C-alpha cells in the first residue's frame, strides 16, 4: 500500500491512501473523483495525492508500476505547484480537477477540431478537466457534474464573458445575471414557448417550400449558406415581424454583415479588439454595428406605432414585468440582436449537419427510413403533421448529439464556492458543462461516433446526458423554435427533392463564430 504520508500533509487523512492506491496503477485514467468517494478529511490534501502522487519519487519505492505521465500533464511537485500559485498560472489548483498545464494547445485544437478536441483530454484526465487561466475553467462531461451545475441555485453563477457585450449587446439576456436575468427571461419566454410554435409553423414551411421550388436538378447547393439565408428569413418574419420582401433583404443584409463579421479570433481574444485608426476587422465590425443599430431602432419605433401582431418583437413590446414596467428600446434592441446571433446560424448549421449525416453512404438506411416516414403524409401536410413524425424527430436529436453546435457553451462564473463531484471549487472559477464530452460517452451512447437516430427511439436520455441546448436556468430560449424549424424545414426539403453530397470527403467540422459547423459547407447536388 502506498503510504499517503507527508505529501502536502496527507498523512492525517485516512482515505487519501486508498485514493493513491486507486490511481497509481491506472496511470492515465485520471478521472474526476467519483461522488461516491467518502469525503476526505482534508479534501485538498487528498486530492493533490490523487493527481500528483504518481509523479513524485516518494511513490516509486512501493514497487508499483508507474506509467509515464501524459506529456501535457504538469510535472508537478510541491515546488512547481507553489511557483504556479505564486505566478497565478494555476491559482487555486489544489482544489481543482486535473488538467493540462496550459490552455493554449487546447484552444488551438478547439479551433481546428471543435467537436473532437476534448477526446484526448478526456483520455488523459477523465470527463472533468481544468483549464488553467484567469480564471481557471472547469469543464465536465460527467452527467453527475452537469446535473450539479444545472440544478444549482442560479445565483451561484454569473455569466463569464461580459466582454462579448460588444457583439450581442451589453443588456442582452445571455449576459445578464441574477435578478436581472430572471426578469428578462420571464419577459422573453412567452413568445418562445412550445405552444407558440403552431403560429410560426406555417411561415417556416412556406419559406422552405419557396426556396425548394427554385432548386434545379443537377444544381450544386452550399447548404450552410442556403440554410443560413432561410433561417434568417424565418427570424426576420417570425421574430422581427418583417414580411415585406425589400425590407427583409435590407435588414437581412445588415444582420448577416454583423453575424459573419464576428470572427472566432475577435470573439476569443479581446486584445484584438482595437480600431487601429478605423481599419481592420474590429473597426469594420463597429461600423456595421452602427448601421444595424439604426435599422433596429427604426423597426422598434414602427413596432410601437403598429397594432399588436403575432411576431416575437410585437410580444416583447407588449410584455410587462411584475412591477408593470416594459422593456425600453435599448434593451429590446440588444435582445433582438442576441436572438439573431444565437438563433439563425445555429439552426442553419444544425440542419446542414443533418443533411450531411443523412447523405453519408454509411447512413443510407437512416435516410431511407426517414423518406419512408415522410411518404406516409399526404401531398400538403399541415406543419403539425410533419412536426409529429417520430423518426424525423429522432434524426434531429441524433444530429444535435453527434454534431453539437456548442461543444462547450458559455462558462458560468462561480460567485461562491461550489462542490463539483467532490471538488471544492473556489469562487471566481468558471464552470462549463462539456456537451462534446457528454454526447460521446460510450456508457451512454454505445459506438458514439456512429450516426444512429434509432438511439432516440429506443430510449430516452436525461437532460444531463443529452443537452444540445444547454440546461438549467440558462437553457436555450429558442430550443422549441429551433427543434420545430429543423423538423419542418428538413421535412419540406426532403419531401420535394433528392440530394447527394458533392464530395465523399468526411467533414471534421470547424469553428464558425461561436459554433461548431461543417468545415466544407455541405455542398450537395440536387437529384
Ligand atoms: C439548433 C439550434 C440551437 C442550438 C443548438 C442552441 C444552443 C444553445 C445553447 C447550448 C445555449 C447555452 C445554454 C446554457 O448556457 O446552458 C443557448 C442559449 C441561448 N439560445 Fe440557443 N440554440 C439554438 C437555437 C436558438 C434559437 C433559434 C434562438 C432564438 C431565436 C436561441 C436563443 C438563445 C438564447 C436567447 C440563449 C440565452 C439564454 C439565457 O442565457 O438565458 N437559440 N442556445
Automatic annotation (TrEMBL):
A Pfam family of this chain: p450
Keyword tags: Heme, Iron, Metal-binding
A GO term for molecular function: iron ion binding
Positions bound to heme: 476
Keyword flag Metal-binding: yes
Family from the record: Belongs to the cytochrome P450 family.
Stated name of the protein: Cytochrome P450
Native organism: Polyangium spumosum
